[in-house]
Design brief:
Blueprint lengths: L26 E2 L22 E3 L5 E6 L13 H17 L5 E10 L8 E12 L2 E10 L6 E11 L2 H7 L2 H7 L8
Antiparallel strand pairs: 1-2, 2-3, 3-5, 4-7, 5-6, 6-7
Bound molecules: ligand 3IX.
The site of ligand 3IX has 27 residues, from helix 1, strand 4, strand 7 and helix 3.
Length: 184
């Protein structure tokens, strides 16, 4: 396989500026889908992440680890933490106003995260080249400048809305995304 496993952009890849139509600085981002495990308000056991963008290019959210998120007794499950990172990474690339999906996600677990911990999550884009977006995120304990407990780096790949229509549920997309043309 010749596919590169890199999650950081090739040298010289530009960091994209804020896009026309991106939410203004300070905006709450809302959920992209009400039944999303990461951000959906109608998901009964989801993470219910609510994010803001301070600057139209990065995303911030908090996630308090609950009893439902345990792996070892009273410690966060690594897969749940990866899901939280995936969600904020996805939200951050969506600021560039195109649909993307996660192609590769790397997670570094730096500190154990006890139940009851509030993680301050932040995600940002390090560069976009063609369909490939290189993203990074971190989760800090207790405060935006607290110790880093989790780091993530990811490659997201741009897709068309047809991706979600063909592989998922077109009716659910049109119900919640009237702003999108599935077949532009
Ligand atoms: C109501 C419904 C709403 C629907 C959503 C609507 C809009 C979105 C709106 C808002 C979103 C906001 C927030 C979202 C927040 C969180 C969501 C979390 C995101 C996820 O959780 S999403 C689920 C998990 N995700 C998948 O379900 C993907 C499954 N997968 C595929 O669908 C294909 O695999 C795909 C499309 C990735 C590529 O397929 P493809 O055929 O289009 O393109 P191809 O293979 O040519 O790749 C092109 C270039 O990427 C390189 N590349 C590809 N994969 C790579 C890998 N793994 N490692 C290294 N490089 C890779 C190639 O090497 C090539 O590179 P090069 O161009 O240099 O050759």
């Amino acid at each position: 396989m010749t596919r590169s496993s890199r999650t950081s952009p090739p040298p010289g890849t530009p960091v994209p500026p804020a896009q026309l139509g991106a939410p203004p600085p300070g905006s709450a981002l809302g959920s992209h889908y009400s039944r999303c495990f990461g951000c959906g308000s109608d998901h009964p056991t989801g993470l219910h992440l609510a994010a803001v963008t301070p600057d139209s290019t990065t995303v911030e959210a908090t996630f308090t680890v609950g009893e439902a998120h345990q792996g070892a007794p009273m410690l966060a499950h690594g897969g749940v933490l990866a899901a939280a990172m995936d969600e904020v990474l996805g939200m951050s690339v969506y600021l560039f106003r195109k649909p993307y999906v996660t192609a590769r996600l790397e997670t570094d677990y730096v500190l154990p995260v006890p139940v009851g911990t509030t993680l301050h999550l932040r995600a940002w884009c390090n560069g976009i080249t063609g369909r490939k977006a290189y993203l990074e995120a971190e989760g800090r304990v207790g405060a935006p400048d607290g110790p880093v407990a989790v780091r993530a780096a990811a490659l997201f790949v741009e897709v068309s809305m047809r991706h979600f229509a063909e592989h998922g549920d077109l009716a659910a997309i049109t119900a919640e995304h009237q702003d999108y043309e599935v077949n532009p």
